[in-house]
Amino acid sequence: MSEKRLLVVDDEPEFGELVSKVASDLGYQVRVVTDGRAFQQAYFELHPTLIVMDMVMPEMDGNELVLWLVEQNYEASLIIITGYSPDYAKDARLLAEFKGLRSVITLTKPIRLAKLREVLGEG
């Protein structure tokens, strides 16, 4: 199993594939899913060392997934992304940090490719 394992959850498949391409070039093993339930299943299969999570998705949003990650005692880095108000991602970061997640980065779509490479390189 690769030392660098990225799990991406975003209901926009094109964005997930973009993140996957950039991350693969940086040496990550990548899994992309489009909803919260698939995310939960993939989490146990992949044991990610980094997660990229969209905030606004049908059925289960980013805040619900943040709380779920806390319950799983997730300790690695988390990148929270939104295409809506940056406040969504900021609020989720505050929730995550309050609940004990240690490394949380927030980004707003559209994301510059250089910025995406930078944050994935830090993860």
From TrEMBL:
<protein>
    <submittedName>
        <fullName>Response regulator</fullName>
    </submittedName>
</protein>
<dbReference type="InterPro" id="IPR050595">
    <property type="entry name" value="Bact_response_regulator"/>
</dbReference>
<feature type="modified residue" description="4-aspartylphosphate">
    <location>
        <position position="54"/>
    </location>
</feature>
<feature type="domain" description="Response regulatory">
    <location>
        <begin position="5"/>
        <end position="123"/>
    </location>
</feature>
<keyword id="KW-0597">Phosphoprotein</keyword>
<dbReference type="Pfam" id="PF00072">
    <property type="entry name" value="Response_reg"/>
</dbReference>
<dbReference type="InterPro" id="IPR011006">
    <property type="entry name" value="CheY-like_superfamily"/>
</dbReference>
<dbReference type="InterPro" id="IPR001789">
    <property type="entry name" value="Sig_transdc_resp-reg_receiver"/>
</dbReference>
